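pasting for the record
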Amino acid sequence: MEHEVAHFMTHVLKETKPKEAFTEHDMRAKCASDAETLERTQTTKLRNEFIDANQSE
């Protein structure tokens, strides 16, 4: 999973060329705030919690 996150971060940096530094937490918050519905926001939050729980194992 860590490799996937690193790959995604590299892709984001290359494609969007952000002007400010950001963290994985920032990306998660952006995804949640951009969700079109409350249900999608809640699903995203639950998925992130699941990923966090499984990364620590």
